[in-house]
């Protein structure tokens, strides 16, 4: 059976996906603030959607891949949980998310992605930080170690 791993956007925006094929993680439930999103979630669970915690080995693998793409600063705990669950079900699932950083990491991991309402990413990107003062490039950080100016996220290359 093919599963749909649901990010928060599935319940916030709504989707026509069959509820009995939905899987999500507990941290997604914590992100549902509106009454409508909570109701969509409750209806999905009553119709067979499952909530499962991600397993530690998959969480670690997601963190490692996010470090390589340099998306780790953009990913929330919920994003990492959802990616780990999608990785666990990689062969029989599709990840439903509008988050571009999540899509970027998922594509590197070989996970099929379908956006909920946004456009799908076209290219997998590796990110870097660029100093707004001296224009030097760095892999991470918020402040330039050379001149002290702020660092801004920029695209390093496409994969």
CATH architecture annotation of the largest domain: 3-Layer(aba) Sandwich
Alpha plus pi helix count: 6
Mean pLDDT: 90
Structural class label: alpha/beta
Number of strands: 8
Helix content: 25-40%
Task: Characterize this entry briefly.
This protein has 159 residues and is of the alpha/beta class. It has helices at 8-13, 26-31, 35-46, 56-69, 77-88, 100-109, and strands at 3-6, 22-24, 50-51, 93-96, 112-114, 125-131, 137-138, 151-158.
Task: Describe the SSE topology.
Elements: E1 3-6, H1 8-13, E2 22-24, H2 26-31, H3 35-46, E3 50-51, H4 56-69, H5 77-88, E4 93-96, H6 100-109, E5 112-114, E6 125-131, E7 137-138, E8 151-158
Parallel strand pairs: 1-2, 1-4, 2-3, 4-5
Antiparallel strand pairs: 6-7, 6-8
Describe this structure in words.
The chain is an alpha/beta fold. It folds into two domains: 112 residues, 5'-nuclease (Rossmann fold), CATH 3.40.50; 34 residues. The protein is built from six helices and eight strands. The strands form two sheets. It has a five-stranded parallel beta sheet. The chain has a three-stranded antiparallel beta sheet with strand order 7-6-8, with no helix packed on it. β6 and β7 form a beta hairpin. α5 packs parallel to α6. It is elongated, with a radius of gyration of 17 Å. The model has no long low-confidence stretch (mean pLDDT 90).
